[in-house]
Amino acid sequence: MRTTALGPALAAVVTALSLSLSLAPGASPAFASPGPAAAEAAVPGPGVEEARLDRDVPREILRRSGFDGEAPRFAAALRGAGSYAGAERAVVRHGAALWRRAVDRAQGRGPAGGDLARDDDRPLYWARLAMTRELRVWEPRFGLSGEARARLLDRLESSSRGQDAIRYPHGRGVKRVLLTGFDPFTLDRDVRIGNPSGAAALALDGTLVRTPDGGWARVETAVFPVRWRDFADGTVERALRPHLPRVDLFTTVSQGRVGRFDLERFNGAWRGGFPDNENVSSAGPVPVDDPATRPQWTVTSLPYEAITAAATGPFPVYDNTQVTEVPAGGTAPVVRAEGPTPGSAARAGGGGDYLSNEIAYRATLLRDRLGLADLPGGHVHTPVLRFGAGSTDAVEDPELLRNRAAITAQVRAIVATAAGAGAGSRAGARVGSGAGEARVGR
Questions:
Q1: pLDDT band for position 33 (50/70/90)?
Q2: CATH number at residue 123
């Protein structure tokens, strides 16, 4: 998801999908940002995101996936809660069940629930919003402050996004990979939109992939919102900090340009202000807990040479070194094809100045502040997920299905290549012989 340096991606309506989710740098080792409870102390009623649920397309997506029953079941559980503790249990149980159902559906387990393609990420997004709306309007039988409701909303977010479900088996022999995706966005331009990074996260969560060197890598995933406030509240750091010291590789993933993958070499400490899913803008330096030590740039440590040289799929994969900077002593932004110059101020990383850039910046800054210099990690931009030419109202069509399947398969191959190019595993689980992909129970 890019807002700058889009090039050909701005050629069609689908280019709205190409905004690079680039937000603020990761907080310092003491990055205990206030969190959603502080940001939402007043907890307003249903907002811009939830209001889109009343459109025909979200209703169709929920109905055709069988996810239209998630919010009513959740609402019934809330009505049965007689205390805050009971409500919290219901929130976590239903949030985790929603994530697990979305993963299982994407990976071919359990009932499809309808005729919508199994690998679709949109049922998870719209069902979560429907549950969020129920939680916002719920009137409990006990006293519930705005701050307490905000904590419940926060638990629903983290549990339904896989952020609370990241688990790696004990033992050795398998590398550990952490991958993140994003929600759909630019929905006011086309409410049918999905996000290939979210689809890839659902497809890969909990799977084993075979690396080119004959080894195995276990992939765990999570999905993040397209909202400036969540990033400012430290959602990325809270989710990733417990796991980065224990993984062998991490990659944040988002939707980028039409027809290509990009490995973003440099990430910038700047927000460009493009509206998020709440139609809120935020421009200026990426907000972090310790701005005095915030670098203007962070750098990928993914094995980009090995990835770009490998045959990972039908889309070309580029090592993208372009940034936009204000040179030292200058006042005007300048595009640099080969990366930032010494002393420059960031105005866009390779991934732009939206939330893609920001999650990449935060994750790699977190890597650096935790002293994990040898940990491979960075950002991968996927191609835009496109509908067929002339398709303006269908919820899915053959080109969308082919496009999504191809992108997900190539993300899997890129992850396998990156994991195989790194050093030996820090920790992992032994698995039997075999090839391709396998599933490990939790």
A1: very low
A2: 3.40.630.20
